[in-house]
Amino acid sequence: MEEKKRGAFSGSLGFVLAAAGSAVGLGNLWRFPYLAAKNGGGLFLVIYIVLALTFGFTMLTTEIAIGRKTKQSPLTAYGRLHSKFKFTGVLACLIPFLILPYYCAIGGWVLKYFIAFVTGNGAKAANGDYFGGFITSFSEPIILMLVFFAITAFIVFAGVDKGIESFSKICMPALLILVIGISIYSLTLKSDATGTVRTGLQGLAIYLIPNFDGLTVGGFFSVLMDAMGQLFFSLSVAMGIMIAYGSYVSDDTDLKKSVNQIELCDTGVAFLAGVMIIPAVCTFMGPDVMKSTAGPGLMFVALPQVFQAMGVVGNFIGALFFAMVFFAALTSSVSIMEAVVSSFMDQFGWSRKGASCVEGLLALILGVVVCLGYNKLYFEFKLPNGSVAQILDIMDYISNNLFMPIVALAECVLVGWVLGPSTIEDEITKSGCTFGRKTLYELMVKFIAPILLFILFLRAAGVLTII
Ligand code: PFF
Q1: At 71, is the secondary structure helix, strand, or coil?
Q2: Cβ count within 10 A of residue 396
Q3: How far away, in angstroms, is 17 Cα from ligand 1 center?
Q4: Which residues have C-beta atoms less than 6 Å from ligand 1?
Q5: Closest Cα partner for 244 from 460, 422, 7?
Q6: Contacts of 288 (CB under 8 A, 6+ apart)
Q7: Measuring from atom 13 of ligand 1, which residue has the nearest CA?
Q8: pLDDT tens sequence across 318-356
Q9: Least C-beta-crowded within 10 Å: which of 261, 285, 296, 298?
Q10: How many whole angstroms from 188 Cα to the centroid of ligand 1?
Q11: pTM
Q12: Are 107 and 439 in contact (CB under 8 A)?
């Protein structure tokens, strides 16, 4: 009864699509291909897949099980399991609170490009100054951020089954079709735009074939850490989201199967993002551009130029591409907002409407500050990892690089050492299914994951500089 009152997914398909919708987002589309290109192609892919099947599987299983077991949101779930771990809940809730404003700001950028390509203005968008000119302008980024946020809030407002689940059931299949379609198209490309004839299949080879040139032990660890940091963000773990979604899952759902499906979807889309983007960029701009253009630069500067170089079909492909990015970003931002809203509901006993309004207002204020970070509030700040940051990057750094490893580490200590892995194993097998990778799970949650997480944290904090 209690479960119904706090919302529930109608079945395991709805849950898997919503969770996969959260996982598949900008991280898959703009960070994964770049990291793969930078870190020796196939080598990164292999490391990432091994990590997903071990580390990712452990974190995802733990969080979904904690959610279902406690039937609580992230803010209150950890405290329910152990009173000394309440702080983990506060941090786990702070992370999506910090991410939502800047995720919506970026969602606004995606909208801007979608509109540009749909209205046939792809050529303008391909101009090198277009992106800088847009984000440094005063009102447009704010207005588009507001639009993206309003759609997110509308879905969260409508509730778990009527809003999030129904929306994911439409959005995710559309997203998958677009991803597969654009990937196939990318492999058929051929151009002499760089002075040499290059094909999509040559780009695919660069993506898939491992490059061990000059690889050292330190270099290998660096690839490992890049892959692990990416895995976190990509799977939406250690930020409360999977706990919130897990709390809406019924007791008879086979969680093991759901975890596998979510992972497959997330890793599959990340892999295909590489198939879409790397061959296209290599064909039209040469192989080195991929290694040096990360994040926003890749999506909002290099890719529009690639679409432009495609000729007449470029506008159409560009519009489809940004529609896909838009869907991916929206299902993720919905989950980010839901993690905070459900926390407010559980902690303060507020209604969904009340909690959505409070979180919405706070996110909007911060969202405007993020947008102004490129205009009236512009400054340059050097992060411990050496990069120069604006407000958006600072919020991203605090949430993803500092807080996330701490939450994940605390979670491993709580489950591995304080409560014991059987707490999670019992929750998984409650529905009658077996726990296939039990020994692996125990080894990961008690030893390997905490050690890797600790190293990741030291690296992010700038303490470990050799890797
Ligand atoms: N996992 C999403 C991605 O790969 O883009 C992003 C994301 C979703 C980040 C939810 C944070 C979050 F709370």
Answers
A1: coil
A2: 20
A3: 14
A4: 22-23, 25-28, 96, 99, 233-234, 236, 239, 241, 332, 335-336
A5: 7
A6: none
A7: 336
A8: 999 999 999 999 999 999 999 999 999 999 999 999 999
A9: 296
A10: 30
A11: 0.94
A12: no
